[in-house]
Amino acid sequence: MRTILFLLLIFTFTNSCFSQKTEKFDRYSNFNSLGLPQVIEKSCDKFDSISGFKEELKYNLIGKIIERKIYSKINREISIETLKYDYDTVGNVIEISRSNKPKVPYPIFVAGGLPIYENEKFKYVYNKHGIWIRKYTIVDGKVIVTEKRKFK
């Protein structure tokens, strides 16, 4: 089933707005008091756009995105992916929650990348300068990925 879904995504992607030979642009509008756009519209074909033809953004008081809605159409059917973000006091993402209409089964496996889960939490270890040097991704209470950074 996932293989079929993946192949369907690849087929739709090749027929999406990225494969058309027209000039592309993004239109930013509805700017908030921080000067950040709350709506982004893409110039691709709104009948089939797996990458999303519209995004709606909500920000916290310091300009970090706390909610992102991505509108797409596949086979002329609208889907909405909603991502909610939570941050630590330093401004790093500590949680991402996803929901979809229509419902999508998670995890979503991405070729050449990490799976996408419905709920992901992150934990960081910081150096003495307040820069994270280790990042842990936690899903269902299990650490699934560790990233390390070195600074000289």
Polypeptide structure, described:
This protein is mainly beta and 152 residues long. 9% of the residues lie in helices and 50% in strands. The chain has one helix and nine strands, in the order αβββββββββ. A nine-stranded antiparallel sheet has the order 1-2-3-4-5-6-7-8-9. Strand 4 (65-74) and strand 5 (77-87) form a beta hairpin. It is globular.
Distance between the termini: 47 Å
Shape: globular
Strand content: over 45%
Side by side, the strands of the main sheet go: 1-2-3-4-5-6-7-8-9
Give a count of the beta strands, DSSP E runs of length 2 or more.
9
User: How many separate helices?
Assistant: 1
Short description:
Helix content is 9%, strand content 50%. With 152 residues, the chain is mainly β. The chain has one domain (2-148).
What is the element layout, followed by pairings?
Blueprint: H1 2-14, E1 26-31, E2 37-42, E3 49-59, E4 65-74, E5 77-87, E6 93-101, E7 119-126, E8 132-139, E9 142-148
Antiparallel strand pairs: 1-2, 2-3, 3-4, 4-5, 5-6, 6-7, 7-8, 8-9
Task: Jot down its keywords.
single chain; 152 residues; mainly beta; globular; 1 helix; disordered N terminus
